[in-house]
């Protein structure tokens, strides 16, 4: 009978023991490994955490926002504007207080910004490349005209999204189409910006989800330089690389708030304007209303104590007046004498 060498038999014993009785620590490590995420998520930065806290209580600083944000960097101001927009708080005053000349994108979609606010921001932010005014019912062709007049680097414009905004977009076709100083050219593509006298000189991408056929045909015929509603493609749009800002499936200001916790704009103090409820629960009230109700409750609770203190103060004042005034002393003595006379009788 031939025996195996010792080292071979040792290996066989180890293999058999490992099959029959698996090691506990190996099993645990495998299970733990299977639960590990594929990627490690980075912890939020201190700036992101601070912006999250500010965003949750944004309505409490609106009144002093101009003084608070005056020394903030441009990226912080843009993040604050993005949070305000998501919380449905963005209006003319807020966007004007936060506007910075170095901004290249402006997302005011679905906000209460009007023509006045858009014109003021366009005067400050002259280097805007991409602007989203979709679902802005207070913006008309006047505001878009001011935007085009001040921002000569505008390449991407988002509009439409609601009936009022669609109407504004139709009225802006004449504003967006460039007008020629030299009409002898054969093609729009051969023109330089110096030959374009008016209109959106640099506009290349128009995102208008529900554009009507007449408006689309008008743009394709009279201004083929402006591409309408490009689709994501690895080959670009007709051989031209489409910028990220021209894709309607992502918000313009998403990169600005990507490191901020989404709970910042989902705080319980905010209720969407579209929804209406007959009775509001305490967690649905804004922070300012909670403070007001707490003050009213405290005022009601302390009212009896204040009334008691007022009566005590009145009695104390009367005693002091009696002790210091000669007239009061005379009246008091006369009262006592009259009482004594009545008692004698």
TrEMBL record:
It comes from the Eukaryota. This is RNI-like superfamily protein. It comes from Liquidambar formosana (Formosan gum).
